[in-house]
Amino acid sequence: MERFEIGKFRGFSTFDLKILGIILMFIDHIHQMFVPMGAPNWLDWFGRPVATLFFFVSVVGFSHTRSKEKYMLRLYLGMIIMALGSYVLQMKVGYEEVQLMNNIFRDLLTGALMMYGIDKLSEGISGKKISKLILGIVLLLFPIVTSFILFALMGNTATMFVAVWASNFIPALLFTENSFLVLLIPLMYIARKQRWLQCLLISLVAVFFFVQGSTQWMMIFAVIPIALFNGEKGKEMRNFFYFFYPLHIWILYLISAYIYTH
């Protein structure tokens, strides 16, 4: 990957991008949890580039991990723990003013599954292996097909409850926190050797949201640190993120519930 160096500034490492994403995410979640107390809407602006930053980091991480299967397994466990933990917490606390819908693990897992599909598709084409070609297509389509299946089941009162619970365990594209925006992950993975193209893809999606009148257009600001990514890993903090993400959301939720009810 390209290496940026301006004076003593040598660009951002993966660690730096994660820290930046965590800081912006924390501010955004303060807005989410304290809306009932009048948290200003401009706090939400800080969170608009966050998903894009984590998607880019996911592409980098998936490209360099020694075991892509273990990478996806960690995300799957994170997705389940987050979903069940949030459900239990809301049931116990009973604070309905804020709904815990957050689960970035589902977004990242869905993206990783599609990246894995791209790998298998590539292996099938280069090695002329029909089995890997089919597997690649199945993996790429799985998050999309399961989305429509779950929606169909939810439209039937007899299967609605099962479908709602099943959505917590299946990486379905339309049930992710960022919906179609998650498609940026496989797209950036295809363009992983061309940073300019990754930044262009982000910019085009940002323009789409701008035309729609959504503040999500502010995701374009993620282009700056991504363009300055130096290709280095930096400090190891994988386990920190897996713990920090659910814990900070749950703690902010409990603080908000306490303040609102006292």
Automatic annotation (TrEMBL):
Q: Which InterPro entries match?
A: TraX
Name recorded for this polypeptide: TraX protein
Q: Which Pfam families match?
A: TraX (PF05857)
Position of the signal peptide: none
Q: Which UniProt keywords apply?
A: Membrane, Transmembrane, Transmembrane helix
The protein's superkingdom reads Bacteria
Transmembrane domains' residue ranges: 20-39, 45-64, 71-89, 104-121, 133-154, 160-187, 199-228, 240-260
